[in-house]
Amino acid sequence: MKKQISIFQPKLSWLAIPFAIIFIAYFVVPLILTLIVSFWDYTEYSIIPDFIFGNYFYIFQGCFTLEDGLCLTFKTYISTFFFCFFTWLITLLLGFCVAYFLAFYVNSLPIQITLFLICTIPFWTSNVIRMVSWIPLLGRNGLVNETLISIGIIQEPVEWLLYSSFSVVLALVHLYTLFMIVPIFNSMLRIDKEVIEAAYDSGASQFQIIINVIIPLCKPGIIIGSIFVITVVMGDFLTIGIMGGQQLASIGKIINTEMNYLQLPGAAANSVILLLITIFIIIVMTKFIDIRKEL
Amino acid sequence: MKSKNLSAISRRKMLQIGAGTSAAAITALYAPSVISSDPITLRYLGTAVSMGDEVQKKLFEDTGLKLKFIAVTTDEVTKRVLTQPNSFDLVDTEYFSLPKLVPSGNILGMDTKRIKEWDNVTSIFTKGVTPSGKKVGLQGTAPSKVMYLEGSTGKKFANDVTQYATLIPTIYNADTLGIRPDLIGRPINSWAELLNPEFKGKAATLNIPSIGIMDAAMVVEAMGEYTYPDKGNMTKDEIDLTMKIFTEAKKAGQFRAFWTDFNESVNLMASGEVVIQSMWSPAITAVKSQGKDCVYQPLKEGYRAWAAGFALPKTTKGKTADAVYEFVNWYLSGWVGAYLNRQGYYSAVLPTAKKYMSEDEWGFWMEGKAAKGDILSPTGAKLASAGEKRDGGSYEDRMGGVACWNATMDENKYMVRKWNEMVAS
Question: Within a domain: residue B67?
């Protein structure tokens, strides 16, 4: 019988210490501080240690009476969920197709690696530049509009190409599709080719193979990719800001504005709520699959 | 340096002359005792507006001091002063941040007795009137209202003139709307035009709440919707009213975009996405230097002004503090003043700056006269040709036409929330 190596063996557990230190110092401690500060009071120029729920009340002020329509927080979350959902859906479809092609249609390993590296090209430059480069393309006098006008499809420039929900989702998809491709591709490579052959031999069509064999076996990759994309988009304010012409709400932008105006406890309270909601989404997603078992 | 035609003298030549005279003047004025041993590097916290390699180079030539620029955004400056007061030796910040900075006790009053040119600082700062005695609008956080501290470590503004200044003023300007006259094709003369449905989808404003709200208030007043007792310190009801008008305009698609970074405003204007927007003067210059027609349009309701200055953090002491005073004195001694005036800003000490500018330059930038030759920016780009006049005219006309100043309101928290609501609508 093969000897199992567990990191919980006393001799090897010290290997986890360096990462544990980093994890505690840069993640756990700041998170606890954020939680603590979210209960503090503040003025224009200082934060005052306290234990008040005011910051949380302030966030949900007017949210349950609906007298002025939907409150700021709900509106902002709806807008954030909207971007999150569409970005997730499109990156998932794209990511799955690209990974599927790479894993099952490209047979030589060097070509597979080459094509995979090509997918990473957008990441060779900063994400601000990747975003800004859409602007001359999509603007009122941009390339797309000029082309459409010159071939006579439209008479007037189309306005919704830029500074709209469309341009935000487009930029987010452009930025984050790779986060889907990588884990799904990884899962697909681990699928035993004989399983697929068995399905084929039993008379399954290609579509049936995808639905009944590949997707179930790719679930861990899909879930991991989804977690990447959803957590990043939930907290985004830069892309939504630049591509939305600063006119579209995101929860990240609200936190950013509060930070700029030194309303740190308010920003902390908003961050805690954002964190709870994101964790909730991830818990729901991991209900579909036990990632630890699958890895 | 007296030349009728600037283009007759090459820029290099002019800098050489400038360098020679000022170096001589400075050595004569103050013996650089602090720099004799080893060069001091001052950590200078501020926005990118006042930071240039040329300033740094000239400073080193004249005084042997070096600067290390820490360039951040306006809001970030405030945050740094409050949270990390020991991370810089000198801060360049705006007057409207003072109601947040002073109560924290993190900045010291600057001793005006150690500022050589203090008596020549323009009366806009010290008395709230222009040099010729014209009253300036004082709504908002006008510099003259927050100029003095009770003592060097005071946490309260003094009502009377004292020895200690909160900020030593450096740079200021009167802001208005920028327009693309070639794309609008008719005269614009009121702030109300920002919300004119004629420019639906082609207007923009800035997404910096404390400045955006002031522009919004100028628009609301110009539309005749409401007259504020003090635009710079609105009540909750006034904030609600202002934001309601802007929210409706936003929902109707009036705005193409909001901007937070000055480069964004340049791109919006240069690309023609926007034809009328809240704008800052260097952005106008940047659009013009791309060969696009762009005007910093004077409006009948007046300007929204801003001003910045130097402050010492409480942690700067001894030799470093001496060096800071030396730097501030150098800054006000004229060369930088001319450098700022040539970019369309104003310098705090006018007589010293005048010495470093040609008669034609002074006439164009400060007196509203038609240029006799080409007017160049400090980097040598052509900003105006012979016969052209500055938008808005002379210093007296522009600063005398100020209606309000950038402000921090008592209801700031409420205002930021309402602003966010507008963005989310």
Answer: yes
